[in-house]
Amino acid sequence: MLNIVFLVNSWLSSFNQPGLCVTVAVLLHYFLLAAFTWMCLESVHFYLSLVKVFNVYVPKYILKCCIAGWGIPAIVITIVLIINKDFYGNASHSESHPFSNFCWIQENIVFYIAVVAYVFVIFLMNTAMFITVLLQIHSVKSRTHERSRFWKR
Questions:
Q1: Per-residue pLDDT, 137
Q2: Which ranges carry the G-protein coupled receptors family 2 profile domain (predicted)?
Q3: Which of 9, 13, 42, 59 could potentially form a cystine with 101 if both were Cys, beta carbons 3.0 to 4.6 Å apart?
Q4: What is the pTM of this model?
């Protein structure tokens, strides 16, 4: 959905309908955040699969992942819309090129908080999960190597 909304964004913005542009910008923002949220959930699943292999039972795991994956971005979008729906709009870059218009977040501060900071937090979490998984794999490999040397002696 992110790709579809991104591809039709400039075409829809050429209609010069403010409501349509706000809707497209909100959808684009939502699906972008949802994609990154699902990426974060994949890293959590990766951690649970490789580090916490045994005795990991999360009741209604898929339901919780779906609520987080689709709900957290919706909360962010709702907060931005409650503060001011005019944060979303048409960013015209050139009058001579009508398809250079793009419906997106108009305020830089909102962009940095609602997109860049969000993605940065997910990047940090993914990095932490990745390092934790690497350390776990390394420790398992070291213990296996120690045991094999012990049994060889």
A1: 86
A2: 1-153
A3: 13
A4: 0.85
